[in-house]
Specification:
The chain has ten helices and six strands; from the N terminus they run E-H-H-H-H-H-E-H-E-H-H-E-H-E-E-H. The protein is of the alpha/beta class. It has a six-stranded parallel sheet with strand order 3-2-1-4-5-6, sandwiched between helices. Helix 6 links the parallel strand 2 and strand 3. The longest helix has 21 residues. The protein is elongated, with a radius of gyration of 20 Å. The N and C termini lie close together (about 5 Å).
Length: about 250
């Protein structure tokens, strides 16, 4: 087996949890409502109702797409346009993007990556390994990169690929092939770490990578019909001794 040269990670529920800042979102929708009223020159539903008619509607569409196991990423601005149209609003694309940006920054404002997880990434880098990040998300790539910078992840990563940037989601092979190409490594030289069996275990292993399933923020078990991970960890800190063992045995 090839020696280990790189480790690639899922983002949400792998490096940090996906907590939603509900109060900040509500406050932001007060501002969005005011913006829409000034644009439409008519009454607009109150902020809590707007959240249901825009944010919740969009997330239901995204979740339904995942349930159908679709691999093509959705156009987030088109989803927002549809939600606004359902309210009888015709909004310029630049305002649609502004609304999405305001909503996204509100939603993620309380998210953090635990210091010990950042320390784990630094420990892997100190061992000479290349690190990559591969995230399924319909949000605009620029917003995600902004958030990765805020969370301290950008400085740890040699390559970052998101499904909204590429247009396809894990477990589509193209998204894994993209990060491997940017890292300059082969599948056999790479370990993938994530919290979902289909996206983060079956997808990488189908290409020849090794895969670790993490239970730190989300506990997804695998059954006999699924491809088993090479290893299961309870926290990201457990990854370092596992990686050390792989390298010693190579």
């Amino acid at each position: 087996m090839s020696s280990l040269r790189a480790v690639a990670f899922d983002y949400g529920d792998t490096l940090g949890d996906l907590t939603v800042a509900e109060q900040k979102l509500l406050e932001t929708y007060v501002d969005i409502r005011r913006m829409l009223e000034e644009h439409a020159h008519r009454d607009i539903p109150e902020a809590p109702d707007l959240i249901q008619k825009i944010t919740v509607r969009v997330m239901k569409q995204v979740n339904a797409s995942y349930e159908r196991r679709e691999l093509e990423e959705l156009d987030v601005l088109a989803l927002f346009e549809q939600a606004l149209a359902a309210l009888g609003l015709e909004v310029p694309r630049e305002m649609v993007q502004q609304i999405h940006e305001l909503e996204y920054r509100a939603v993620v404002s309380v998210r953090t990556v635990p210091p010990e997880n950042l320390e784990t990434l630094e420990a892997l880098r100190a061992r000479g390994l290349k690190l990559g990040l591969v995230s399924n998300a319909h949000f605009l790539p620029s917003l995600m990169l902004e958030d990765f910078e805020r969370l301290g992840l950008t400085r740890c990563m040699d390559a970052i690929v998101t499904s909204s940037q590429l247009g396809v989601r894990k477990p589509h092979p193209a998204i894994f092939e993209r990060v491997l190409a940017e890292l300059g490594v082969s599948p056999e030289e790479t370990l993938f770490v994530g919290d979902k069996v289909r996206e983060d275990v079956e997808g990488p292993k189908a290409l020849g990578m090794r895969a670790v399933l993490t239970h730190q923020f989300r506990q997804e078990e695998f059954d006999g019909s699924q491809t088993a991970p090479d290893h299961v960890i309870g926290s990201l800190q457990e990854l370092v001794p596992y990686v050390d063992g792989l390298r010693e045995g190579s």
